Amino acid sequence: MIWIGLAIVILTFYLIYKNYEARLVLALSGILMAGIGWLAAGSNVTIGTAVDAFVKQLVNGGLVPTIVTVMGFGAVMTYTHCSDHLVNALVRPLTHVPAIVIPGAAIITWLLNIVLPSAAGVAAAVGVLLIPSLIALRVNPVMAAAAVFLGTWGSAISPGLMFNPQVADIAFKAGEISSPDAMIVIFSEALPAACGAVVAAITLAILSHFIKEGVGTADFRPEDAQVDLKNFHINPIMAIIPIVPLFLLVIASKEVGWLPTKTFSVPVCMLIGTALGLIVAILHKQDPGEVSKQFCKGAGDGFNNVVILIAAASLFAAGMKSIGLTGSLIDAMKGSQSVAMASAVLGPFIMAIVCGSGNAAALAFNEAITPHAADFGMTIVQLGAVAQLSAGIGRTISPIAGGLIVLCGIAHVNPMEVVKRTALPCVLALIVVTAGMYFF
């Protein structure tokens, strides 16, 4: 039974790698394993039980409101162009200090990805401004794309990323934390992640120097350098609005405590930001009804692309439990804490490189293994955070990641050439993040 389950898991991730619909593949694999486990081994996890695991995630009160409101808020910021003003406000200073443009581009993208948690979305928003600016400074176009791509894992510490609410919910149900607050997870991983981002950015800057692809090294390509940074009028208020919800979440967290945590939850803060976006739309004579439609569309996309994926991963994890695979993996990890630690890092990291997204692997790991973190001498928050951070970093070495395809289209370069430059910085970032989470 264990070997059958392992074969199904391998086939599942192979199909995801071949770009079959991840939600469908995870759900069908989960039902298949649950059915086999029930019929052949008399498991308590039946097909009905596995489907119940799927449904519970669709109505998860700690998870669903967080994800849909974040995605809705992001759609409103795009529609009102507040995100454009924030991007321009951060990008413009780089053009005045050429020496820091490469690490600066990576760090700015990383920070913006916290506010705008879609990797492909932030790649498009930042890349269309930064890549032409870097090319105008005679940075090699491949290095320009690499600098922006390197920052597209900043969403790892965003309250809108699916994993942070998921890990918080698991930890809350296990009694490890007092509330299913994603900010508890984020605060535990923020410093290691920030250190990893800085190490990666500096490494890329050093690499650009040694391979002579930094500022002033490339031929000027005027056709690619048409960017209107100087003439874009930045509205400071519009630039600030996208970061208001994040600021409120930080000051309302238990670690800071300036505002009541229970009152200023993620959905509340996102709705406050959305209300500010509505005011901006009215002042700029945009249709308030369209703002509402954009919020609903973003929320719907969040439910469709994120919540249902989490639900499918829960069904998949229930199937693994039914066929006995989860128990075997836990028993193997109990024998060695180092095995559990390595699995959380390398599994999602490798799958993200191969698939262009580590979501499926990290979600499945968190559903099946992370709840048993105490058996390995770790906390749920610690183990779950490492799994999702590894997935985010791994995606930044994948030649088929959606954000990379967007950037390569802007820079007119080959994806494989870009990931050759992000590989070393990402590996070093993974080492720093892992050490920070496990040992400090």
UniProtKB/TrEMBL annotation:
<feature type="transmembrane region" description="Helical">
    <location>
        <begin position="144"/>
        <end position="163"/>
    </location>
</feature>
<dbReference type="InterPro" id="IPR004669">
    <property type="entry name" value="C4_dicarb_anaerob_car"/>
</dbReference>
<dbReference type="GO" id="GO:0005886">
    <property type="term" value="C:plasma membrane"/>
</dbReference>
<keyword id="KW-1133">Transmembrane helix</keyword>
<feature type="transmembrane region" description="Helical">
    <location>
        <begin position="397"/>
        <end position="415"/>
    </location>
</feature>
<dbReference type="InterPro" id="IPR018385">
    <property type="entry name" value="C4_dicarb_anaerob_car-like"/>
</dbReference>
<feature type="transmembrane region" description="Helical">
    <location>
        <begin position="303"/>
        <end position="320"/>
    </location>
</feature>
<feature type="transmembrane region" description="Helical">
    <location>
        <begin position="94"/>
        <end position="112"/>
    </location>
</feature>
<feature type="transmembrane region" description="Helical">
    <location>
        <begin position="61"/>
        <end position="82"/>
    </location>
</feature>
<keyword id="KW-0472">Membrane</keyword>
<feature type="transmembrane region" description="Helical">
    <location>
        <begin position="340"/>
        <end position="365"/>
    </location>
</feature>
<feature type="transmembrane region" description="Helical">
    <location>
        <begin position="232"/>
        <end position="252"/>
    </location>
</feature>
<keyword id="KW-0812">Transmembrane</keyword>
<dbReference type="Pfam" id="PF03606">
    <property type="entry name" value="DcuC"/>
</dbReference>
<feature type="transmembrane region" description="Helical">
    <location>
        <begin position="118"/>
        <end position="137"/>
    </location>
</feature>
<comment type="similarity">
    <text>Belongs to the DcuC/DcuD transporter (TC 2.A.61) family.</text>
</comment>
<feature type="transmembrane region" description="Helical">
    <location>
        <begin position="422"/>
        <end position="439"/>
    </location>
</feature>
<protein>
    <submittedName>
        <fullName>Putative anaerobic C4-dicarboxylate transporter DcuC</fullName>
    </submittedName>
</protein>
<dbReference type="GO" id="GO:0015556">
    <property type="term" value="F:C4-dicarboxylate transmembrane transporter activity"/>
</dbReference>
<feature type="transmembrane region" description="Helical">
    <location>
        <begin position="264"/>
        <end position="283"/>
    </location>
</feature>
<feature type="transmembrane region" description="Helical">
    <location>
        <begin position="24"/>
        <end position="41"/>
    </location>
</feature>
<keyword id="KW-0813">Transport</keyword>
<feature type="transmembrane region" description="Helical">
    <location>
        <begin position="183"/>
        <end position="211"/>
    </location>
</feature>
<keyword id="KW-1003">Cell membrane</keyword>
